[in-house]
Write a structure and sequence with these properties.
The chain is an alpha/beta fold. The chain is built from nine helices and twelve strands.
């Protein structure tokens, strides 16, 4: 497999595409040495990273199997989830917002998107682009995935209530938002994100590996939010969520209702005035020796 040369991004970090030695026909995108995306070029329906598989299960369950959806991805990476949606829900209309043009070019050279796919890429900062999306997307987007990273951290300006308020008008009546949050000891950042999402959307669930949720291990927690009104039959209770655990990866735990309230504890919704970037992962987490 011939791979393109690494590129330097606008923040000085280096993005590189590597061949996965363990999964034939697969590539890994790294930024500053941190694995960002994994794509199985032979089977885009095969998701490798645990948190991506959890998001993939959300995609599988929140609509009828195989039905096309409209999706907005904030953060492009190697387009793992857009490829997955196209493979499992052909005919879906998708838009991807990515700040780094050089990153998009690198990924497209290594792994071109399917020609049949309706995937449009918008270049720019996720929050800035939200403010200038076409009016036709308002109230018409089934799924918004927030997976924005600068290196190995989520920037502060895409973690606040003001940021999520820009997303809410885009959603259909029973549309959902899925957020990939990374955190470690105490889970202070992620609990703050859950509190923020609940203040904007109302119904929230947190799914992750039990030791990560307990703050004993640095890792990813997938947050799912819905603004649907249960009284209108919109499914605000997200009654399909329990099936996520059956799909793995294991071990897994889901926090909703009272359990989520207890986990959030004293964490308060984050605003622009007090937002901060997600914590750095421990250096040894991605140390390849």
């Amino acid at each position: 497999m011939r791979l393109p040369e690494p590129v330097v991004l606008s923040d000085g970090l280096v993005a590189e595409i590597e061949e996965d030695r363990w999964v034939p026909g697969s590539i890994v995108l790294t930024v500053d040495g941190t694995p960002q995306s994994h794509v199985n070029l032979r089977d885009p329906g095969d998701l490798f990273f645990e948190y991506v598989r959890r998001i993939g299960h959300v995609v599988d369950l929140f609509r009828l199997p195989g039905a096309p959806i409209s999706a907005l991805h904030l953060g492009g990476g190697a387009f793992t989830l857009p490829r997955y949606i196209e493979a499992t829900r052909p005919g879906s209309r998708q838009q991807v917002v990515e700040l780094e043009t050089a990153l998009v070019d690198l990924v497209r050279e290594a792994a071109p998107l399917p020609k049949r796919a309706s995937i449009r890429v918008r270049h720019g900062d996720a929050r800035a682009v939200l403010g200038r999306l076409p009016d036709g997307m308002r109230g018409a987007t089934d799924l918004v995935v927030v997976d924005v990273f600068a290196g190995s951290r989520t920037p502060a300006h895409v973690s606040s209530a003001e940021f999520y308020e820009l997303i809410r008008p885009l959603l259909t009546g029973d549309g959902i938002v899925v957020v990939n949050a990374t955190d470690g000891a105490g889970q202070g950042f992620t609990r703050g994100q859950a509190a923020t999402l609940r203040s904007v959307f109302g119904t929230v669930a947190a799914v992750g590996e039990p030791q990560t949720l307990k703050g004993r291990r640095f890792g990813n927690v997938v947050l799912v939010a819905s603004a649907a009104d249960a009284s209108s039959g919109g499914g605000a209770d997200l009654d399909w969520l329990p099936r996520l655990l059956a799909g793995g990866p294991h071990p897994a735990r889901m926090l909703v209702g009272r359990e989520l309230d207890e986990w959030i504890g004293g964490a308060r919704p984050v605003t622009d005035a007090d937002a901060s970037a997600s914590p750095l992962p421990p250096r040894e987490l991605f140390d390849r020796g």
